Every structure is written in C-alpha cells, then in structure tokens.
DNA sequence: CGGTATCCACTGAGATACTG
DNA sequence: CAGTATCTCAGTGGATACCG
C-alpha cells in the first residue's frame, strides 16, 4: 500500500514533524553550501540561541541528516555537514524556500487585506 | 537584494512559519485534489480536532491560500478549495511529501540506530 | 453540518549564566 | 570554541462539551 502523509500512523508523518519545527529547515538550508562550524551556523541562522541550535543539530544527527565531526584540538573545533540523506532533502526544501522567497509578499498582502476588512 | 530565509527579518520567514505548523501542510495536501467540505477534511486528515482544523483553515484563508464558500442552506454546507496562490504552493509541497514518503523509513532506521548505541 | 467555548497540558523556545 | 545547566514562559495544540 502506498504511503500517505494524511494517515497519522504513517512514518512519513515523522518527517513532517521534523521539518515542521521552527529551525530545522533553516539549518539544513544554512548547511546547503557545505561544511560549517557551530558558531558559523549561529551567525548564519539569524537569532537562534545556542541551546536551540544544539537541540536541532542533535535531532538532525539522530535522524541521519547531519554529520558531526569533533576535532580533538584546543580550542575545540566541530564541523557539521549534511549526509547523503540530508543532501537529498535539500532538493524539496529548496523548492519550498524558493516558493517562500517568491510568494512571501503576496501572502503578506493577502493577510493585510484580510485583516483590514475585519 | 535577494531574499534570504536565514534572515529573521525577511518576509519569507513568515511563510516558513505558516508551513511549519503541525497541520497546514497536511491540510493543503488534503485539498490538493479539489474541493472539500469541513467534515471531509476532518476524515481525510487523521486525528485533527475540529478546533484545530478551523484554526488552520482560518489561517490559510487569511493568507490567501484557501477559499471558503458558505452556502445558505439547511443543513449548512461549506466548501474549501485552494486559491491560485495555494495551488502554486502545491508543487514545492508535493516535493516534500514525496521525499517524506520515500525516505521516512531511512530516517527512522537512522534514528533507531542512533538510539541503540546510546 | 460546521463549527464555538472553555479549559488544560505540554513542549518548544528564550534568557542567562556557566564550563571543559 | 562549543557547548551545558537552569529556569521560565507563551503559544500551540488537545479534550470535551455545547450551539445555530
């Protein structure tokens, strides 16, 4: 039987849960152009706190989307990069991102119009 | 200047917020094959409560992604359908959905492996 | 049928401070 | 540098019951 996101028991629901948190998409996008260190990600992804960044990265790692490499040096150095699975997610995500960047204004206008007549 | 989701001030962030809630994606997908009534959506989208369904639909309506048509009949009849903007969102969303349905298992396996060694 | 109303619980997320 | 440790809180979502 075909998978169906609309079915709550379907595993594909967990994917949407992962994607559906506030930072995951952003971080995957931030990693789309290659390897980055913790503090680089912190800069690139606006306003994310270290705690949340850690949480999200751990979640991505757990799900096999991100690879974490620790170098035994002082000061510490840790690199994050997308796995193959993570990179494969990039494509659909890029589509969403493009849509977002192209249609955000239209959405905002619709919202203002709706709010105005209320 | 190019839009950039990573910038917290960028309007495209609001798009991700909309998409990033628990039910929006699911409901848009449920509406992808045409017009549906409230109770049809309730059935199709597993485990959604009426309150949350209403909330989400109102949000989608506000943002110009969904159209709501009320028929003045007894018993009441209300139809929901995607707007043009909403339909345009369908494409990127379908990409995500497909990815989810194809890779959910791989993700779950990675997760189990990660949890096992902990 | 298509919702509201009410109340509650939980988690995601933020602020701040600290450490190996 | 790359995180942890606490604490706190708001918002999102859920259960249940009821209404036009």
From TrEMBL, chains A, B:
| Record domain HTH hxlR-type: where | 10-108
Protein known as: Transcriptional regulator
Q: Which Pfam families match?
A: HxlR (PF01638)
Do you know which Gene3D superfamilies this protein is assigned to? Winged helix-like DNA-binding domain superfamily/Winged helix DNA-binding domain (1.10.10.10)
Keyword Acetylation set for record: no
Q: Which UniProt keywords apply?
A: DNA-binding, Transcription, Transcription regulation
Drop me one GO molecular function for this one: DNA binding
Look up the coiled coil feature and give its residue ranges. Answer: none
Give the SUPFAM superfamilies listed for this entry.
Winged helix' DNA-binding domain
Q: Which InterPro entries match?
A: HTH_HxlR (IPR002577), WH-like_DNA-bd_sf (IPR036388), WH_DNA-bd_sf (IPR036390)
């Amino acid at each position: 039987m075909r998978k169906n996101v609309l079915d709550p028991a379907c595993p594909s629901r967990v994917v949407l849960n992962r994607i559906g948190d506030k930072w995951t998409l952003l971080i995957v996008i931030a990693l789309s152009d290659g390897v980055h260190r913790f503090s680089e990600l912190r800069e690139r992804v606006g306003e994310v706190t270290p705690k949340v960044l850690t949480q999200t990265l751990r979640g991505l790692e757990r799900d096999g989307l991100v690879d974490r490499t620790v170098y035994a040096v002082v000061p510490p150095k840790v690199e994050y990069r997308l796995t193959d699975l993570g990179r494969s997610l990039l494509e659909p995500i890029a589509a969403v991102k493009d849509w977002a960047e192209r249609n955000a204004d239209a959405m905002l206008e619709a919202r203002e119009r709706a709010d105005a007549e209320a």
